[in-house]
Amino acid sequence: MEQVDFLVVGAGIAGLSAAARLALHGRTVVCEAEEAPGVHASGRSAAFAHFDMDAPLVRALTAASIPLLEEPAARRHPALFIALEGQEDALDRVEAGYRRWAPAVERIDASAAQELVPVLKTGAEGIIGALLDRDGRKLDAHALLEQHRHALGAAGGRIATRSPVTALRHEGAHWIVDTPGQSYAARIVVNAAGAWVDGVAQMAGVAPIGIQPLRRTVITFDVPEGMDVSAWPFTKTVGPGFYIEPEGRGRLLACPMDEHPSEPCDAQPEEEDIALAAWRVEEATALEIRRLASKWAGLRSFAPDRLPVAGFDPAAPGFFWLAGQGGFGLQTSPAMALAAEALVTNAEWPEALRAVDVAAAQLAPGRLRQS
Ligand SMILES: Cc1cc2nc3c(=O)[nH]c(=O)nc-3n(C[C@H](O)[C@H](O)[C@H](O)COP(=O)(O)OP(=O)(O)OC[C@H]3O[C@@H](n4cnc5c(N)ncnc54)[C@H](O)[C@@H]3O)c2cc1C
Questions:
Q1: To the nearest whole number, what is the mean pLDDT of the chain?
Q2: Is 93 exposed, middle or buried (CB count within 10 Å of its CB: 0-12, 13-18, 19+)?
Q3: CB 258, CB 270: distance < 8 Å
Q4: pLDDT of 155-202, one tens digit each?
């Protein structure tokens, strides 16, 4: 039985970023079921940071996080939000949400947007206007995870890979956590198991909070020879539609922004979502997608109110939830890790979060148990 202060379940971005901070305060081990960190949602993300998020809380957490995201894990890259016919109101809404955190964001017309992304259709068949954020961030999930793995190790913590947590029970002042090769006695368990968080809670005899995994599909494809897309902005429709972003000089990533309820699993792309991704891109652009370079799917996991969760379970001492990172888990991870550190160690609420008006109560899991 290994004694630890903090046992983190899950080496995705949520678990690893929090573990890197917790290791500064006590002995920390991250148990990860897979053979490497980031195999699930964190490694399957489109990895872009922007403010086109519905919830003000998520925008505030993003604003707190962006200054903490450094090269090479994050580099400046523009984002373009395009409105198709009928999406004028949505464009106004996105702009209103954006202004507080990125006042320099610019409203541009369809032809200016087309100068940035020459394949976009304009007029009756295409876009009618756009919003340009020159200060978005392209993230590198692998580099982010590596940064945290390194910081965790430097502070004396470690990741135990191929270590699925199979049982948890509370004994005295400790959680006894079993994995196939090793058991741990932990003062605090941090449940950062992504799509699996409710299942981990149930193993511990803790009531679930209703996290729903939603599958999302991504394709990549090569653009015509000689076309250099590397400077194209991350380009996303303001309402239902798609987004595209460059993957190097000659390749684009595209996503139809699908959301299909799923069990926690190793998500796989479905043929009809792959076809939908290609169709939506072809409808709005001059591109023809003849062959895919790759395709994948991942699970974005949401709380019932679609807001992130960080806090101790009100009914289970020492059981900490770090869950519901939805479609914004990478871009909010620095702020969420600071929140988790402060809450787990009972420290003062971080200035970075106070500055953006985020309070601990907004993240607390107790809010999901009120009804
Ligand atoms: C297609 C797609 C596009 C996205 N685009 C963006 C984007 O542009 N920007 C952004 O910020 N976010 C984006 N996201 C969201 C982001 O990827 C997630 O919010 C984030 O990765 C969630 O991290 P996590 O650590 O909670 O989950 P995960 O990365 O899934 O990590 C959970 C880990 O827990 C482990 N685990 C589960 N059960 C156990 C157990 N019993 N024992 C041990 N380990 C266990 C799993 O193996 C897994 O590694 C996107 C997601 C998808 C799928």
A1: 96
A2: middle
A3: no
A4: 999 999 999 999 999 999 999 999 999 999 999 999 999 999 999 999
Write the pLDDT tens digit of every residue in 21-49.
999 999 999 999 999 999 999 999 999 99
Q: Are residues 250 and 260 in the same domain?
A: yes
Confidence band (pLDDT; 50, 70, 90) for 124? confident
Q: Is the CB of 318 under 6 A from ligand 1?
A: no
Task: Establish whether residue 194 lines the binding site of ligand 1, counting it when its CB lies within 6 angstroms of any ligand atom.
Answer: yes
pTM reported for the whole predicted model:
0.97
Backbone torsion region of residue 327, taken as left when φ is above 0, otherwise alpha when ψ lies between -120 and 50, otherwise beta: alpha
The pLDDT, as a whole number, for residue 371 is 54
The gap from C-alpha 347 to its chain's centroid, in whole angstroms, comes to: 25
CA nearest ligand 1 atom 16, residue: 329
| 316/13 Cα distance (integer angstroms) | 24
Q: CB of 328 closer than 6 A to ligand 1?
A: yes
Question: What's the domain range around 344?
Answer: 2-42+141-210+305-369
- Based on the fold, state whether residues 107 and 184 are members of the same structural domain: no
- E strand spans, the chain: 2-9, 28-31, 48-49, 74-76, 79-84, 106-108, 127-133, 137-139, 158-160, 167-171, 174-178, 183-191, 212-222, 234-237, 243-246, 251-255, 260-261, 292-302, 309-312, 319-323
Q: Ligand 1: does its nearest atom lie under 6 Å from the Cβ of 233?
A: no
- Domain membership flag for residue 198: yes
8 Å CB contact between 336 and 18: yes
Same domain, 111 and 235: yes
Position 73 pLDDT exceeds 90:
yes
Nearest to 43 by CA among 326, 365, 369, 299: 299
- According to DSSP, residue 78 is labeled -
